[in-house]
Design goal:
Order of helices and strands: HHHHEHEHEHEHEH
Largest sheet: 5 strands, parallel
Strand order of the largest sheet: 2-1-3-4-5
Low-confidence stretches: 1-5, 43-47
Mean pLDDT: 82
Shape: globular
Distance between the termini: 62 Å
Number of strands: 5
Length: about 200
């Protein structure tokens, strides 16, 4: 059937991706081309027109592109602002957080990417050691009952601004407080980094 025949990504995928990056830049390629494509694959999966393996395969291809792009960026200056990024245990959607990592590092921030499945106690230790200007997480998988508890644990004992993004359902469920900044797009995140970075300019 069509699932098996369409499983392999076209051999010119890399060329198409690189052409888009040259035309639009990396950030716009991800937001205008890759995100809609991933959403399309997700829709196919929910209608049984794609396998879970396909979604994971494509996601991992994009993940590799993001990691490669992050590694090519310049090392930030010693006195640059810093950000710690992490995901709630059980949250597997890493692409958005990797994109945030790319944006922050491209703008000259020191980035501490902890990734998936890090216990809260370890996240708090890193925050104490690094003393970041921001911390960030994303909540894509529905887990409304866990989110506020996780946020409360992470923010207990510190006043570091906590940037949060994710699905509309999860963002709506998060209790508003002064320490939390909810964002709904990469460009909103970029604008917030710019505002904070201005404080670090001599």
């Amino acid at each position: 059937n069509g699932i098996e025949s369409d499983f392999v990504i076209p051999p010119d995928f890399d060329n198409i991706f690189e052409r888009q990056v040259l035309r639009k830049g990396f950030l716009r390629t991800i937001t205008e081309v890759i995100y809609p494509f991933l959403q399309y694959v997700g829709v196919l999966w929910t209608t049984n027109k794609a396998m879970v393996a396909q979604e994971h395969y494509i996601s991992n291809l994009i993940r590799q592109k993001l990691i490669s792009a992050i590694e090519r960026l310049s090392i930030p200056s010693v006195d640059a602002p810093s950000i710690v990024l992490f995901l709630l245990e059980g949250e597997e959607h890493e692409i958005g957080l990797l994109l945030a990592t790319f944006i922050a590092k491209e703008k000259g921030w020191k980035v501490y990417y902890l990734g998936q499945g890090v216990p809260v106690v370890n996240i708090k230790k890193v925050i104490d050691i690094v003393e970041p200007s921001l911390i960030m997480s994303m909540f894509v998988t529905p887990k409304v009952n866990k989110i506020n508890n996780f946020i409360n644990q992470v923010t207990e004992g510190n006043e570091v601004p906590f940037v949060i993004s994710g699905s509309a359902e999860n963002l709506q469920a998060i209790t508003d407080c002064e320490q939390i900044l909810k964002i709904s797009s990469p460009f909103e995140f970029e604008a917030h980094l710019n505002r904070i970075q201005e404080e670090f300019i001599p």
